[in-house]
Write a sequence for this structure.
């Protein structure tokens, strides 16, 4: 886990437990929808349709590498990750560092608030 992904994880955990995490770990779904535009070329959130990346319908609570019909990298397929707000936040902060050897070309979101916002948007679409 990188320093940045650890910071995001701490903020998410703090906010989820009622602490004073980053922006109280509150994401804004409307702002997250704008951030999502960076994701939508490769991912679909509202339909079980794979693109360059797997669809993200039902992502929360799902094991990584579990979307039927998507060809995952061995690193992702064998990662043992279950997607939660925390793990998604850590992954979005540094996809290559969080799961070394995965194929996602996206470099990650640099601003913690953007991560919180896009997670809030993703949750609103589930």
């Amino acid at each position: 886990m990188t320093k940045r992904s650890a910071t995001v994880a701490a903020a998410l955990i703090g906010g989820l437990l009622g602490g004073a995490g980053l922006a109280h770990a509150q994401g804004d779904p409307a702002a997250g929808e704008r951030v999502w535009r960076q994701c939508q070329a490769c991912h679909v959130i509202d339909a079980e349709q794979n693109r360059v990346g797997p669809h993200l319908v039902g992502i929360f609570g799902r094991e990584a590498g579990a979307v039927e019909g998507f060809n995952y990298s061995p690193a992702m397929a064998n990662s043992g990750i279950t997607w939660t707000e925390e793990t998604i936040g850590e992954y979005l902060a540094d996809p290559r560092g969080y799961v070394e050897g995965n194929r996602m070309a996206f470099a990650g979101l640099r601003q913690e608030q953007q991560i919180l916002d896009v997670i809030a948007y993703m949750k609103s679409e589930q």
Summary: The chain is about 40% helix and 0% strand. Confidence is low (pLDDT under 50) at residues 19-23. Residues 32 and 118 are 4 Å apart (CA to CA).
